[in-house]
Each structure stands twice: as structure tokens, then as C-alpha cells.
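ping. complex inputs:
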Amino acid sequence: MGTEVALNGHKTVFESPAPTALLWALRDELRLVGTKFGCGAGICGACTVIVDGQQQRSCQTSLGDVEGKSIRTIEGLSSEIGKVVTDAWIKAAVPQCGYCQPGFVMAATSVIEANPTQSVEEVISQLTNICRCGTYDAIREAIADVLATLKKRF
Amino acid sequence: MAGRAATIARRTFLVGAGVLGGGLLVGAGVGAALVKRRLSTLGEYKLPSSPGEVSFGAWLIIDRDGNVSVAVPHQEMGQGIHSLAVLLAAEGLRLPADRVKAIPAPEAWRFVNPVIMKAQLPLDPHSESQIQAAALWTVDKLFRISGYQATGASTSTRNIAEQIRICAAVTLDMLTRAAASRFDAAPDLLEISNGSIAMSDGRHATYAELAEDASKLSPREVALPPLGTGAYSGKGIARADVPPKTLGLARYGIDAREQGQLFAAIRHSPRLGGKLLRAKLPEGQPGIRGIVEGEDYFAVVAENFSTAVAALDKADVQWRQDVGLSISTSDVFKSYRAALNADVKFPSRWIVDSKGTTTRPSDSIELANGSSKRKVVSATYEAPYLAHTTMEPMNATALVTDTSCKVWAGHQSPTVAKLLAARAAGLKFGAVELVTPYLGGGFGRRFDLDYVAKAVEIAKHFKNTPVQTIWTREEDIRNDFYRPAAMADLHGELDEAGSLVSLVYKIATPSLADQLVKRIFPAARGGLMADKNAADGALFPIYDTPNRSVETFIVDPGVPVGTWRSVGHSLNCFFMESFVDELATAAGIQPLVYRARLLEGKTGNNSRRASTLIERLVKYDAENPPPSASPGVKIGRGFSIAACFNSFVAQAADVEIKANDIRVSKVFVVADCGFAIDPPNVTAQLRSAVNYGLSAALFGRIDLENGRVVQKNFDTYPALTLANAPRITVEIVTSNAELGGVGELGTPGIAPAVANAIFAATGKRLRTLPFDLSMAS
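pong. complex structure:
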């Protein structure tokens, strides 16, 4: 029984009941606390993970919804673009309190992986996460840096 | 220079040995200032260290690898205080910053924060009065005895910067003398580099090798290198918390995962001030361990949080009908209106600042209608209650045994956290152990440690088991300690030239200091003195009006209120700086020119600092004109200036208005905090504070309906996002004045700058927040 997924590249079986929100299954069953609880209503994005390549709010996603799918969390962010994103994030010194940042990093990574040749504005338009510390200028800078780096590579 | 040195000597004499900090000494750039090393204080308290480590004074530890720990008595909530301590310790010890790490300071009296208490006094921070200096000295002493540690009011840097710099300079001197002794050489033949002290002949010793010998020497007077002359101050360092926070490795209170930990979901009374009658859950629910009945809440405890939170709605709950608020928002503002109308007859009216002769507004209107050539400008301003919405909702984890209580939680005062935890556990203060992780936002909310007390109360029902209590976002928004709502009547009189000759400023609002104190000491009596928080921003204004009266009308409708980023300034700066533009309009003078005129004739350092910022705004405005309007889009630019937290700040905001939709496209901030020790972090904090204030100005309102908070989550209490955040550019002015606070500095001025921009674009004056053009006539 349980819900089988590919979690950060490894076959994983969640024991929590199928209606359990993925957010809480990650945090409480697996003790993976990098994915954060911010609102429980799918609005703030602190709980963002990547499911089959798409950014998804794990507080609005049940285990039943992700049966058989590939899930990536901040703990397992090891893709090439993920590394460019986190390097740029660190270089721009984006985080202040930092609580929203894993969600932002996952959202930005999924959006950019889907199309690395987008413009900054196109990427930004797909990031609706909330940052109460208002790090938006630094986020813009980091995203511009990521896209410039990728442009040189591709 | 001689005068300045004499001042230092006299102040040192006044405060005597045994006192550190308080920012009494000249901050920076006055050349190498001779610091009277506080002999007895360095010997008074020694930072505890482990075997193989050597501690120096209260602040530094050198370990066996020659790496350094610096004790920080402030919590890291994004403001970068841990990094600031690392910067100053590294610079003072001439070490690369990555060889220094911040550690939490022990909760010893030595690490009190007297700056935060002095900031509560209704005293002009820029005054040079000796009587005031004596009063501040007395408060400083009293609060050192209290052992009160706290993080907030933009005081952390001012509290610790000088102390760490002195300790590092004295420690480096001790290490140098130890090396000189070891090599039997004069100290000036030694070269200090990268944690090692060397002779030209190649003999060298590392700090680790020298530490033990150095610690046995007597600390002595040393020259303190001014800020800006070392490796990092004025430049900045990479914050060590940035990588873990980016990679999801940083842990917050909500991430505590202790062995055997249970999870509790809490639900408070739907009416503010309400009390629980009973709460029961049917037995035998899978995963549920029990239900706890608190005074004004109940909590379901389960093996995981999702089980606990799902069960909240299944509980059979009754709240007491006879207790709790039943008012609505309109009742609050009606009571404010009544208080302001009662004027001099109102019993809780405090005159917090008074100069010259003012006439009561009602009388002066009659005068103006008569033969007087004065122009009268009168306006009423309002602002709503605001929630904090830190990104990490309230939570605390507690493990209570018969003899001890361990708490894992973010907070803004370990002193109050432990006090309330001890009370809740029924134990002594000393029986509480507090583990403080990173805070997912403070903003003043985490000053109020009700969430710690409740978590302990709940855990007490499950002794010997760690229980983490989490508040849902709904609980967090509906049970906040809100930024107080307020209403203000401003009444200005202009002479023929348009100069402001009289100002009567009346604000109706509760005393949040009274509420804060009563929450910690329920027996405390309130109303004993004027609450500076209510008048901050109108008190000690930058502009010196010859006749003025600033009055607070204390009205408390019973809504819980607390400190919200920039506190009273968030109200009064909006009211005052919007009103200044109204005066400028009445006088027919451009707003920046008008502000410069209001500063004319004022002498002294403060008006110079303010004038400098006005000049920078004028320059910015000339060099960066706003774009022209286009069909359907109105463009406007507005300005503001504020003096708060011992700093000065001015802003220019650009708005684009389409129908009733307001978009702030750009903000320019120019700030003077004396000396920016870490300029990139100062920039980040100014941007953060501007966005925090803007989010509130555009969207923030907490309403009451029959005692219940209307808003519930980010759907009904929205926050600024990338889509509507402006591009914010920052310029830092170095005045080399005393250090000023930065964390909250950007917040007060954004609302008035935007209000003034909206007026410039549309001719509509919005006197209430959040901005709503559909309401304007």
C-alpha cells in the first residue's frame, strides 16, 4: 500500500493516507523540512515543489494526486539549471529571513528549465510567490544573472 | 577636535567604569579615537568557552584552529545582525570574515539591550541636553539590572557594534603583545596577517598558539580604528546565512523535529478577547492524542499536523457568550472621532510636544474667517489595523517535564520568552532552556510571546513529550497584535508667505506600550505616562514650527495591539508627510522646495542632515524625470522625508495610474544612518522595509465585524508580489554622525511618498489607507 513516487530521483513510498497533503507528508512523515508551510491555501508558494517538471504548491496537492509521478524538493535540487539558480541566488544575496526562498528557488528553477531562453519579464510573470521581506529587487537581479549565464552556455 | 575629546572624557567620567555601549562615542571618521578601554568590564564577564578555546571579554572566542566565534545577543530574522557582528569582529581582529562565525550570546545580564528601552522614552534623540544625557544614563543602568534582552526597534547594531569593535581591538592588542613577548621583539616589528603574527625573520605564531598567553595579559587602552578604514566596514561581507537559506538547509522554529514529537493545531476564540467554555473531541480518532482546553483557545494534539488541523473542525466547541469584543471597525473610528471632538476635555489627552502658542482648531477657523490673513489647512487622516504576516506563521515546540521546560521557537526576546514559558509551565525562570533558530520574519510580532506560552501550556498536558504547536495562517492573521488603527486631526496655519506658523496635531489611538507591559506583567497599571509610540513621527519633527502642539488621545477599544515594523512612525509619518504636501499645495509651492523652506533657519546637525537628503531628492528628481503620461495612464511623483531610529531617510515614489488601479513603478531611497557598516545589507534592509510598508499601503487592512476579524489569509489580506513590487534604488549618505538604526527605516516614508505621487497624478488627496481611488471624490 502507500503512495509510490520518484522523490529526488529515488523510489519512495509514502505511508501517510492518500488524501494527506504532500507538504505535510514531506515535512512530518519524511522529516524533509526544506519545503515550508506559509498559508495552506496555495497562495504564498512557500510550499512549492516540482512535480513532473511543473511548479506545484504541495499544500494543495494530495499524495493521491502524485502517485507514480516524479517529485523534486529543495533538498534534491541538483540539476544543472538548479545549480545555476542557487549560485545566482547566493551571489545576489537574495535571502533575508529566508523562509520563502526554497519555494522561490523551486518555482524559478522549474520555470527556467521549461524554457531557458525566456526573458526576465517572462520568468517573473510566472512567479507569484510571496516574500514578506520584499527581496524582489535581488530576485530580479538573480534571475537576470541566471538567464545571462544560460545564454552563454546554450 | 579638542572639544570633541573633552566631550568623550566627560561622558566617560559621567558613565564611569562598568558601562558599555549605548553609542555614546563618536561613530566614525573622526580619526583614530582613543577609547578608554573599560578595564573592569572586560574582566567583569567572561564568555563561557569549551576546553581548547580561549575567550576574550564578553564577545570573542578563539578556538584551537585560530577561528573565532563572536557572541550575538540578538536574533537573526533577516536583518543581518549576525553578519554585522561577524564583520566587525573579523575587521577588528584582521581576519578574513569566513574565519569568524556568530554564536548566540548566553542569556546573561551582560547582554541586555538598553538602547531599545531608551528609545521608549519621550526624549529627543538628537538633543544635546545634559539633563537628558543623565536621564538616559539612569535608564541605561536600570535596564542593565533587568537583564532584558530584545531584538527590535532597529537597535541591534547600535547595541553591539561599538562593544564588539572595542573587544576585538583590545584582543588584537593582547595577541600582539603576547607575540612580542614570545619573540622578544617590539610590537611594531610584528606583522599581522590572516590570523598569524610574524617577525621579519620568519618566526610566527597563530592566534590559536598565542591565545592562552594573550588571555593572561591585562587588557589595556588601544586606539580604535575608525569605521571605514578596515577591511570590511563601509564595504560589506557575504552573509553566512545566505547559502543555507537558499539551499533549504536553514532551520526555523517550525522545523524542529525532536524524537517522539507530537503536533498540535490551535484554534482561538473567533471573537477577539473571547474565552473558551468547553471543547471536546469524540474518542478513538486515529492519530489523535488528545484535545487541550486553554483559556481562549483549544488545541488538538496528534501524531502529525495534518491530522491535528483536520480535527479542529470536528471538535464540539462552545465559547463563552458573555466575554469578548462585539465592536466593528466603524465603532473604533467613531470612538476616535468622539475623543478628538472632546478636545481639551478628553481625560486621556497627553500633550507630548508643545511650543509657543497655538489656538484650538475650532477657534482658529473663526479667526481665519475674520480679519486674519492666515490660511488655514485642516485635514483628518485615518489608518487601519494591520497584521504582520511573517512568512513563518506563529509556532513553538515545547518539552515539559516535572522539573524543566525546553522550548524551540523564534522570538524577539529570550527574556520574555523564558518568563512566559516558566509561568506557563509552573516552573522557575532558570528551569527553562530556550533554543533559538532563525526566525522566518519578526517585524515586531515575535516580541509578543503568547505563542510560546500557549505551546508550553499544551505540552504540559503531554509531559516528557515534545509537542509542536503551529498556527494556521488564518489563526495567525486573526490573533495578531495589530498595528493600531488611528485617526488624526491636523490643523496648520500659514502666513502670507506660506510658512507654517502654527500646527496642532492630534492623534487618537491606543497605548500599545500599556498593552505590551500588561501582557508581561498583568498587574501593571497603565496610563501613567505618555506613550511615545502613539506620537512617534510627529514628535521631534524635522521641521521646526514656531507654534505647535502634538497631542495623543488615548482610546483603547480593546483590540490587541503591538509593535509593527516602524511602530508609531508607520502612522504619523503617513499623516505628517502627506499633510506637508497639503500645506505646500495651499501655499502654492513645490513640495520639495516647501520642505527645504520648512527647514530654513533651523541650525544644527539634524537640519543639515535633513537638508542634505532634500538636496539629494532634488538632484534625483532633476536627473531622473518621471516618464510622460500616456493615453489612459496618469503619472505622478511624490516625496517624503523622515527622521526615525536615530537616522534620516527620504524617498521619491513614482506611480502609474490606470482608472483606479495604482501601480508604484519606482522608488528612490536616500538614507543617512551615520555610517553604513555593511552597505549592501543596508540597501537590502531599506528595500525590504519599503516593500513592507508599500504592501500595507496598497492592500493592508484588518477589519472587525462584531468582534471578529474579517480577513483570514493572503486572499483577503494580500501581500506585495513580484508583479506589483517597484524597482527600488538606494543611495546611502555618510554623515559620520552617531550610528542610527536601519531595519525599519524604509517603512514610514513610502505611504506618504505614494500618497503625494497619487495627488500629483490625479489631484486626488487620499487621507486613508490602504489607498483606494474609488473612494476618493
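Helices of chain A lie at 22-29, 80-91, 101-114, 120-124, 136-153.
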